[in-house]
Amino acid sequence: MRRISKLTRVAVGVASLALAATACGGTSGDSGDESKENLGLAIAYDIGGKGDQSFNDAAYAGLQKAAKEFGYKTADIEPTEGETDADKEQRLASLAKQGYNPVIGVGFAYGPAMQAVAEKYPDTTFGIVDSVVEGDNVASLVFAEEQASYLAGVAAAKATKTNTVGFVGGVDIPLIHKFEAGYKQGVEETSGGKVKVVSQYLTQTAEEGGFSSPDKGKAAAEGQIEKKADVVYQAAGLSGQGVIEAAAKAKVWAIGVDSDQYQQEALSAYKDFILTSALKDVGGAVYALAESVENDKPLTGTQTFDLKVDGVGLSESNPEFAKIAGLQDAVNKAKEGIIDGSIKVRTE
Predict the structure, then answer these.
(1) Which domains does the chain have, with CATH numbers?
(2) Could you say which DSSP state residue 30 is in?
(3) pLDDT above 80 for 160
């Protein structure tokens, strides 16, 4: 899509505001041709939406950074309950037609919709988080979640006193299997097989609420804690808030995911029991794509964010992290091993 100067962008600010008001409401009468002004970055959220203190909020942080740095209009659109691929397709098409560029679908569920829409708007750069979509104008933003999860497993193995730890996955799908696989391997290799991992998936499909039901997460964590798990790692989106609540109530450790959940204001009542979080720099990936478009060098193809490029990692915000004997050294050693290739982390 044709780029415009920041000065020109300011001049059309009023028009941009009017266009943004229709971002979620179907299609407009605009043709989406190359004469349209570029309004800037737009993101369409995954299940759970903004406020999950995790995956979607990380994407929003990237959007905020782009808006501040590039001084342009942005849009962030919520999902609707029970929506179809056709609904997602309409949402992405509406954003592209209005003139947003890039347009990012936050979550693998946008795959089919993005495949269809990207072909119809070849002058718009699209991005998708956590999935690979082929297209000359599509950037697939994927992460080495298993690497961050391995580090979470190291932390769990060092922190447990009962030699039983838990894993709660939101939905039983390959993406979340990566989290579980890395975590289990980290626990096993750190403890020499002495620590048991109790695993549970909340639902078989996202439509059943696995990523959007804190009550389901809370119940699963309570069940694992009854089985003596004293560290519970969750990869469950909004449902993970229930896991953290249950852990705090039982005074055992929770491990957060995607964002540094120790730092999230909405979880502040539980922060003393959030040992660490397996980080996934969704915000950095969102910003990187926006920056590439701003510089007229849009990223395309598969862009992998791993430990080597700080695309994933492990938070150390909780002061208690540094107080657990051997934890910091074990995590540092594991990081080095993953980066230099001496530790091969499983994805299944």
Answers:
(1) 6-143+282-309 (3.40.50.2300), 145-280+318-340 (3.40.50.2300)
(2) -
(3) yes
| Residues 200, 340: Cα–Cα separation, whole Å | 32
Query: In angstroms, rounded to a whole number, what is the distance separating the alpha carbons of residues 277 and 230?
Result: 16
CA nearest 123: which of 108, 138, 110, 141? 138
What is the signed CA dihedral for 11, 12, 15, 17, rounded to 10 degrees? -90
CA distance 202 to 209: 8
Q: Model confidence over 48-74: pLDDT tens digits?
A: 889 888 889 999 999 999 999 999 999
Spatial distance between the Cα atoms of 34 and 42, rounded to a whole number of angstroms: 18
pTM here?
0.85
What is the Cα–Cα distance from 204 to 190, expressed in whole angstroms?
Answer: 30
The residue among 301, 294, 256, 319 whose CA lies nearest residue 141 is 301
Beta pairing, strands 312-314 & 274-280: antiparallel
SS3 283: helix
State how far the Cα of 73 lies from the Cα of 230, in Å rounded to an integer.
Answer: 46
Cα(83)–Cα(204) distance, rounded to whole angstroms? Answer: 17
Q: Give the phi and the psi of residue 75 in degrees, each rounded to 5.
A: -145, 140
